[in-house]
């Protein structure tokens, strides 16, 4: 495909923490864009308190995508549509793992379209082996002492292990 100008994709989410499923979707996004802005949202539809602070979630994202020059990791406050405009995004990408994701994603996409009719959303499916994976399941399994090493990168695993260390729960 020849393009007259660079295509920027925005990949927003809570990333609490970033999983191999998120990583897979970000890498797939590079197949349909020149540059991906992975953006961790301070304001999420999920009203529960996050496990990791915004800063730590961003740090983990930067660690896992450190080798990929075409992926930039940032955080944002406020509306997604406003941030998309600010960073010059041509499209917004979300991962779609199963039919159960569809209703939530469809609602969000439609609301965002009401807010900014010019913004396009695309949905990418992760590798089938990662389609069951969610950050909330990873948090739960890690909290209960299960092995989450098949689901997250080593730097994320390290932070999860420290976060749930009963003897020395540190600043992670
Ligand atoms: O990983 P998540 O929690 O499913 O991501 C949801 C996220 C962060 C993409 C969504 O809550 C969002 O866009 N938040 C920014 C605030 C906003 O624009 N809310 C209105 C969405 S229709």
Folded structure, characterized:
The chain is built from six helices and five strands; from the N terminus they run βαβαβαβαβαα. α1 links the parallel β1 and β2 (about 35-40). About 35% of the residues lie in helices and about 15% in strands. The longest helix has 17 residues, at about 100-115. The chain has a single domain, classed as Rossmann fold, CATH 3.40.50. It starts with 7 loop residues before the first strand and ends in a 9-residue tail after the last helix. The protein is globular, with a radius of gyration of 16 Å. The protein has about 170 residues and is an alpha/beta fold. The chain has helices at about 20-30, 55-65, 80-85, 100-115, 135-145, 155-165, and strands at about 10-15, 35-40, 70-75, 90-95, 120-125. Strands 3-2-1-4-5 form a five-stranded parallel sheet, sandwiched between helices. The chain binds 4'-phosphopantetheine. 4'-phosphopantetheine binds near residues 44 and 45.
